[in-house]
Amino acid sequence: MGARRPGRRWRGIRVTAPEGTRPTRSGPSAGRGGDRRPARPPLDRPRRAAYEAVAAVHRDDAFANLVLPTILREEGLFGRDAAFATELTYGTLRNLGTLDAILTDAAGRDVARIDPPVRDALRLGAYQLLHTRVPAHAAVSSTVDLVRSVAPGATGFANAVLREVSSRDADAWVAKLAPPMETDPVGHLALAYSHPQWIVRAFSEALGGDLGETARLLIEDNERPPVHLCARPGLIDPIELADQVGGAPGAFSPYAVYLPGGAPGDIPAVADGRAHVQDEGSQLVAAALAAAPLDGPDGRWLDLCAGPGGKAGLLGALAAQRGARVTAVEVAEHRARLVSLATRDLPVAVLTMDGRDVGSDPKVPEQHFDRVLVDAPCTGLGSLRRRPESRWRRQPSDLPPLTRLQRELLGAALRAVRPGGLVAYVTCSPHTVETHVTVTEAARRSGVPVDFVDARPLLPAGMPGLGDGPTVQLWPHRHGTDAMFLAVLRRG
Question: pLDDT digit string (tens) for 223-236?
Answer without folding.
Answer: 999 999 999 999 99
